[in-house]
Amino acid sequence: MAYDKFNILTSTAVPLPIENVDTDQIIPARFLKATERKGFGDNLFRDWRYNNDDTPKEDFVLNNPSYSGKILVGGKNFGSGSSREHAAWAVYDYGFRCVISSFFADIFRGNCLNIGVLPVQVSPEFLEKIFKAIETNPNTEIEVNLPEQIVTIKAIGASEPFEINTYKKENMLNGYDDIDYLTKMKSDIQEFATTRPF
Amino acid sequence: MSKTLFDKVWDSHVVRTIENGPDVFFIDRHFIHEVTSPVAFLGLKSRNNTVLYPERTFATADHNTPTLNQHLPVEDPLSANQLKALEQNAAEWGISHWGLGHQKNGIVHVVGPENGITLPGATIVCGDSHTSTHGAFGAIAFGIGTSEVEMVLSTQCIMQPKPKKMRINVNGELGFGVTPKDVALYIISQLTTSGATGYFVEYAGEVFRNMTMEGRMTVCNLSIEMGARGGMIAPDEKTFEYIKGRPLTPKGEAWDTAMEYWKTLQTDEDAVFDKELTFDGAHIEPMITYGTNPGMGMGISNHIPKAEELQGGTTTYKKSLNYMNFLEGDAMIGKPVDYVFLGSCTNGRIEDFRAFASIVKGKKKAENITAWLVPGSHEVEGLIKQEGLLDIITQAGFTLREPGCSACLAMNADKIPAGKLAVSTSNRNFEGRQGPGSRTLLASPLVAAATAVTGVVTDPRTLLKEEALT
Q1: Which of A65, A144, B302, B375 could serve as B298's disulfide partner, Cβ 3.0–4.6 Å?
Q2: Whole-number Å distance between alpha carbons of B282 and A131
Q3: A30 to chain B: which residues are within 8 Å by CB?
């Protein structure tokens, strides 16, 4: 499934200053039963967001009207746990296009890149700055500039560069994915396969 | 140039290297299950692609399956629908499918090795993070997302940057009552849940050499819980002994050729790792977790650390203890428990049931305990009966369920109710992992068994000692 191109994203952000946010929190396993990629955003952070009777938990950030935007800012080791791509789908389907953290779990990061959510890793200090800026003013805008690989807190003018490999950057800028690349080199792969002993 | 075991297997599977990008990485074996594959098949169709090598993909149903009355239709319509989708997709593309009721059905990471699909030097992926289990055989095995499942189906490759390399040595001898699960939980408690992120781990040292294949699978299974993509152990005589003669292992001349290759699968003496850690096996106690991630674990006789003793942020730590309804400084031994779960891809193998039975033999299940004993596969279930373990556990007041992921992840009917405390041999103690509001203590099958007969968190060594004296 191709996704929207990513270039420069300027948006307010939703802060989630919790460490080790795992994929079972992002989307609990009981919501993984669909056979199509639809509606996962409704269950993003389900058990932090809703009570058992499906009423919203007022103190959770997604239920606080002061915070909104296309950027989710999480504490370190974001996305640890399961390989469920549903976690990345839920983030995307809810409307986020970028997750900022000081550290990402490997599989979650890869899943995000494969579906068009940009994971932006910043220093712990810069992450704190973002949390502070949003705490001070929930309307704080953050600019994520993929071509330049720079993230900026607009109100205070603080910026930091971020890393992404050239291949994935090109993919995100153009909305390409790995399957496009791999299907084009199928004959090379078939030749390689003949050399495998088992 | 000297190479590590990981280098040898990785490098031999690179079809193409992209500068400042990932490697195009060939996959020998691909497991699929009902949860993470349906959308991949939809994607495949929408692009007009086909399954390139159906003989390299193996399907089994495990996450959604009930563990009672498997001969009856699955009650939950959504679960039934996913199981049906797997069956249909497998049939449409000519993929072998071990669905519910099939004699080879079971948890994907249990049935793969049992059937000889898992081989040394192979690359193995599955849309499941505990695919790292198969590293016990000297394979490179790791979990992938659904987009990557589609890539493997349509091209037998994924695109991955080569991870950094870490070696974890555990030397010396393990103490009495200390199991592979304890070794893994100990390492995770030392590294934290992100300590190995970005790395692929090789486990080395006496402790792993002395471990059975089942034990090695438990350790490699938990590699992901310290953030590593996977973990592996160099194959040796034990590995070859385990795989020889299994249904899908190479036979005859092919076996001899494979053996020649497999014997080269060791890290060269002067090969360099990006990071190397060494622990003393004698320092490891039976472990238990007290928080909401697998890194929050300690020796069972210890007390829950105080927030002020920790480095770094305390907000998340306090949130975690608050969820568990525990206090800083609490002892774990003696805490009343409601549920005991023996099973999962971590501890659902025959050795785990032997360990459980060794403790409950001649005793009775505590009245306050609801116990779910779930074999990892029908093969394990058969061995439990064959070895007389079923009689032992039945006499102790336990019953045996049918194979599946069960209470590990609360996707099927086996859910721990809100507020209840469970000692589980599975792999994750995240908030709500075993059911909304459930509270999980991760531990070994020995700790689970000791707890199941006393009703409170119990150090298995105290029961094993009594046993030795009588």
Answers
A1: B302
A2: 44
A3: 410-411, 436
Question: Which tens digits make up the pLDDT trace of B12-50?
Answer: 999 999 999 999 999 999 999 999 999 999 999 999 999
Min Cα distance B276 → chain A (Å) is 20
Cα–Cα distances in angstroms (integers) from residue B246 to residues B80, B110, B113, B263, B351, in the given order: 31, 13, 9, 19, 18
CB contact under 8 A, B154 and A52: no
Tokens 């360990």 appear where? Answer: B355
The 10s digit of each residue's pLDDT in B364-403 is 999 999 999 999 999 999 999 999 999 999 999 999 999 9
Q: A168 and B146: CB-CB below 8 Å?
A: no
- At B1 the pLDDT is 84
Distance CA B163, CA B185 (A): 23
Contacts A33 to B, Cβ<8 Å: 35, 64, 76, 78-79, 81-82, 411
Query: Residue for token digits 């934290």?
Result: B192
d(CA B281, CA A111): 36
Distance from CA of A197 to the nearest CA of B (A): 8
Span A179-196, pLDDT tens digits: 999 999 999 999 999 999
Tell me whether residues A197 and B257 touch, CB distance under 8 A.
yes
Long-range contacts made by residues B209-212, C-beta under 8 angstroms, separation at least 24? B209/B236, B210/B173, B211/B180, B212/B238, B212/B351
Torsion sign, CA atoms B134, B200, A119, A27: positive
Test B156 with A106 for CB contact under 8 angstroms: no
Phi (first) and psi of residue B318, to 5 degrees: -65, -35
Residues of chain A contacting residue B52, judged by C-beta atoms under 8 Å apart: 186, 189-190
How many C-beta atoms lie closer than 10 Å to residue B311's C-beta?
Answer: 5
Task: Give the side-chain half-sphere CA count within 13 A for B314.
Answer: 8
Picking from B42, B53, B144, the nearest residue to A36 by CB comes out as B42
Span B331-361, pLDDT tens digits? 999 999 999 999 999 999 999 999 999 999 9
Residue B127: closest CA among B147, B111, B113, B102: B147
Contacting residues for B345 by C-beta, under 8 A, at least 6 apart = B107, B108, B109, B110, B130, B133, B221, B376, B405, B408, B427
Task: Show which of residues 342-401 on chain B sit within 8 Å of chain A, judged by CB atoms.
Answer: none
Q: Which residues of A touch B428 (CB under 8 A)?
A: 22, 24, 81
> What's the CA gap between A130 and B257, in Å, rounded?
58
Give me the mean pLDDT over the B184-201 stretch. 97
Cβ proximity of B169 and B280 under 8 Å: no
Chain A contact present for B161, CB below 8 A: yes
* CA of B228 vs chain A CAs: smallest distance (Å): 8
Residue B17: beta bridge partners? B23
| pLDDT values of chain A reduced to their tens digit, one per residue, 198 residues | 568 899 999 999 999 999 999 999 999 999 999 999 999 999 999 999 999 999 999 999 999 999 999 999 999 999 999 999 999 999 999 999 999 999 999 999 999 999 999 999 999 999 999 999 999 999 999 999 999 999 999 999 999 999 999 999 999 999 999 999 999 999 999 999 999 998
Distance CA A193, CA B13 (A): 9
Question: Cβ contacts (< 8 Å) between B85 and chain A: which residues?
Answer: 35
Give the span between the Cα atoms of A109 and A104, in whole angstroms: 6
Distances (CA, A) of B252 to B89, B237, B258, B259, B262: 33, 18, 10, 11, 15
